[in-house]
Amino acid sequence: MDERTRKPNSRDGSPFRAIRAIDYTVIFARDMAAMRRFYEVVLGFPLLRELSPNWIEYGLGNNTLTLARPSRTAADAPTPAGSASLQLAFKVSAAEVDQCADELVRQGVALLSPPTNQSFGHRTLFFRDPDGNLLEVYAEI
Questions:
Q1: pTM of the complete model
Q2: How far, in Å, CA of 39 to CA of 41, rounded?
Q3: Domains in the chain, please, with CATH?
């Protein structure tokens, strides 16, 4: 019940309440070659499968991270270059945040924010992928 209006909450019977996790995440790649190199070589994500040159999947725990060329959204206006379309956060241990920062710098990736302890209890590191998406490596501290 919505206590303010005393009406039944429309979400109570929603079939979407059955959703428990994100199964896969799709990143629409503007530059597939650069994005594939970044996620496979720089970040070292394990290739799960390549269904076509336009659909490449990486296995990350219980999630599949996919690089794809737009199909259903191909007619959409493109995200302007230099603009993030999404933010992804990858959880590691506190020591690994610094190790990831060192590896990114070694690979020539510019850090937007070096490893930093945040007041809300995370150690964070921010950088971008070749398409400009915001990526975060973090640990709970």
A1: 0.82
A2: 6
A3: 22-72 (3.10.180.10), 82-141 (3.10.180.10)
